[in-house]
Amino acid sequence: MATDPYKVLGVSNTASDKEIRSAYRRLVKQYHPDRNPGDAKAEERFKEIGKAYEIIGDEEKRAQFDRGEIDADGQMRGPFGGGFGGGAGGPGGGFGGFGGFSGGGFNPEDLGDIFGGAFGGGFRSARPRRGEDVRGELRISMEECALGTRRDVRLGDGREVSVTIPAGIEDGKTLRLKGKGQAGPPGMDGRPGPAGDVLLKIHVAEDPYYKRDGRNLRVTQDIDLRTAVLGGKVHVRTPAGTVALRVKPHSDSGTVLRLSGRGIAADRNHEAGNLLVTLRVVLGTVSPELEALMRREAEAETSD
């Protein structure tokens, strides 16, 4: 005979639904096969826990068990053992003693199903159920967003899952990791149900340097007055590393230069974006010679 489901989960028969659910989750975490590989006793305990929760984790089945209508395996008790409650009553009394069929909800076909299951070739087994989904959030940098990344994420039950984050993922996008969620409660035959999924919401952190523009990234690059006038090279930071960028002579603030393929990385459906560099001329340190030259030019313009 199966063990009392309340005792299996370590709760009293007056426990709330929340207390039962909490006990179940704690025990499933403790005896999960992934955490006890090759441990036959832990596997058997895991099945026993699932079977117990199948009964008292379900409001209707728990009520039936408490009334003595079903046993710890979820099977209907025999009709002659008193498990169905009172007798048939007097004439016209019907089957009011059956807890599950009292009142106007009685259906003769339901009664046939009960006796058919009890005497017609064995009891029916409950099917295993799908496990619960696990939800979480993950914050990544703009550079990780641009190139794509791989992260190991620790779940609430202590497990770690590895998640691949594709390049160019949008802020607020939810990734689904199929079969990585809670284990499915087993059916009466001990077969585990399919596991739920992990639903991971991705947040892309704002970056003071990079600004996203579709598959492109925009940055602002300061250059000094000499480089703006004479041209030269400046070093620009990109998600994949620092590169040298040539600035043409007489480049003014607001000039936009392009570094091809240095934006959001390519994937199967998109080409790599570009890094768009907006130049900003900063005065920097002015040499006495330059200042004197500009004064002479200003005085000449004034005299004219």
UniProtKB/TrEMBL annotation:
The keyword Transferase does not apply. SMART domains: DnaJ. Residues 4-69 form the J domain. It comes from the Bacteria. Keywords: Chaperone. InterPro entries: DnaJ_C, DnaJ_domain, HSP40/DnaJ_pept-bd, J_dom_sf. The keyword Transmembrane does not apply. Gene3D superfamilies: DnaJ domain (1.10.287.110), Urease metallochaperone UreE, N-terminal domain (2.60.260.20). PANTHER family: DNAJ HOMOLOG 1, MITOCHONDRIAL-RELATED. This is J domain-containing protein. It comes from Bombella pluederhausensis.
